[in-house]
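Lab notes, practical 5.
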Amino acid sequence: MPFTIATWNINSVRLREPIVSKLLVEEAPDVLCLQETKSPVDKIPLDAFAAVGYPHMVARGQKGYNGVAILSKLPLEEVAAFDYASLGHARHVAARLPNGVVIHNHYIPAGGDEPNREKNEKFGQKLDYLTELRDSFVATTPERSILVGDLNIAPREDDVWDHKKLLKVVSHTPIEVDHFNDVMAAGAWVDVTRKDIPDGLLYSWWSYRAKDWDAADKGRRLDHIWATPDIAGAAHSSRVHRAARGWEKPSDHAPVFATFDL
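Output from the prediction step:
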């Protein structure tokens, strides 16, 4: 039975409930994973989402910062919520669908502005999160799983608007990309988006600082959908819903979609 999953850094689920509901009504994914919800779990507007067909949710939240949630048409069984790097942040939650597939929703630390852990604690936290995530996959090989989220790294040269200019900019530095690739390799994860769209510039984030984000098009692909090898072959129809970046009071991220025939 096919199901479609979407991931979206929403940058405050309460502030942007109207566009979350718009996406759910217009695009109707079976599962929507949100990051940076910036809300305690009990304040997430689940009633609004249930009213358009999404009564199921697992989430972790905190006031004003971070936060992850999985909204679903299908029943969800919560299976984990790990505090990688012991940051005390709401950055991960995982749930199992009725077909047995486990979805991991991550909001990896952005890493601040200076790509140097000696000068910037936040950059060190980002690298530590990725290292612990890698080690968890070395310890236990994931199976029948999907990993999504704002991973805050654009790994490929064609995942950013200018590879050379961004080599020293957090999200595209070689050390981050190396950590990113180590995480992927440890779990033998498949980048579903790039499996379906192997070539060409592809972005999911555009800065608020640009007066005309669409015309400037200085984007980065920070949002990802991965799958374990046992189900990656069932994935198809990946896309970035770029138009959502231009909706009223938008997030600076656009939703990323994939469908699985399972």
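Observations recorded by the TA: The longest strand covers residues 2-9. Helices lie at 17-27, 46-51, 121-139, 174-186, 192-196, 213-216, 229-232.
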